[in-house]
Fold:
Amino acid sequence: MANEAPEKPILCPSAQPDVPDAKVFGVMTGNQEAGLRVGYLNEPQPVTPEILAASAPAAPTEVMRIAAPCMGHGCGHFDGSNCRLATRIATMLDPVVRSLPRCAIRPTCRWFRQEGPDACFRCPQVVTDLRAANELQRDVAGEHSQLPETALYKGPGDPPA
Ligand code: SF4
Structure:
């Protein structure tokens, strides 16, 4: 049918900021000792150089949750039909909330589509890149997910380290 609206892309809710169409949909609150939690924004914000610079000296993915179209086979977490990261989150982490967070990306979130509310009950504790992850967090994240200690955010135009 000519008038059908194009389907919206399925979003990865733990994306890197340089993926096309990336949007910030949550900001980490709290601290590592007490436990970091996502504060979900009412309206996702496009990733801009100004928003990225606001996270310095942390990396954007340490302090923001960013959504972007799921890369499917381009992502190491995808097994051809499912996101294994979503499965690990839903099965290995304890829930941290008892009701669905007010999350603006739920209609197109891959983790929710695949794991349902079990993903959302655990999602607020997920930090995309943790500098000092514990063993469980490293197991859930999988390989190559942790930032190296030296990976401080470089703003646009900053010289390389
Ligand atoms: S898992 Fe749930 S709370 Fe987390 S981003 Fe997806 S829809 Fe939002």
Summary: Residues 11-141 form one domain.
